[in-house]
Amino acid sequence: MAAHLAASDIRPSLVLCSSSLRTRQTLAAILPTLGDALEIRIERELYGAGAAQLLERLRRLPNRASSGMLIAHNPGIQDLALALAAGGPALAGLREKFPTGALATLELDVERWRDLDHGTATATILVTPRSLESGAGV
């Protein structure tokens, strides 16, 4: 996944990461590819959070954050992605499965984070560890 992030030039301005060991290890593995201009927040409230809690947390992001990455847990993160996505080429894959280590890219249709709500995004890309092994992406 780190190689995919680097090749895709994915550079979030802010990363929210659960405080669990596994999510912090994931962050550590991909951190060198995310660039230097990012803010990282490790947050206990993300551990085991459901979709509603994750949505509320995203709504509190500062508007100066032009993009964000959320490293959290299932089923909350998959449920959140499905709630936000009104459509898009990756929506069917998100419905099928959001495996550990997957990366969903959602393009938001809002100006401010606080306006984020159900159906205000497009699921553009879903990359799973298996799709990287096979050389395919959704």
Q: Would you give an account of this structure?
A:
The protein starts with a helix and ends with a helix. The longest helix has 10 residues, at 21-30. The mean pLDDT is 94. The chain has helices at residues 2-8, 21-30, 51-59, 76-84, 91-96, 129-134; strands spanning 14-18, 39-43, 68-71, 85-87, 103-108, 121-127. The strands form two sheets. A three-stranded parallel β-sheet has the order 2-1-3, covered by helices on one side. The chain has a three-stranded mixed β-sheet with strand order 4-6-5. The chain has 138 residues and is of the alpha/beta class. It contains six helices and six strands.
- Average pLDDT reading: 94
Strand order of the largest sheet: 2-1-3
Number of helices: 6
Largest sheet: 3 strands, parallel
Number of extended strands = 6
Task: State the helical fraction.
Answer: 25-40%
Which range does the strand content fall in? 15-25%
Entry summary:
With 138 residues, this protein is of the alpha/beta class. It has helices at residues 2-8, 21-30, 51-59, 76-84, 91-96, 129-134; strands at 14-18, 39-43, 68-71, 85-87, 103-108, 121-127.
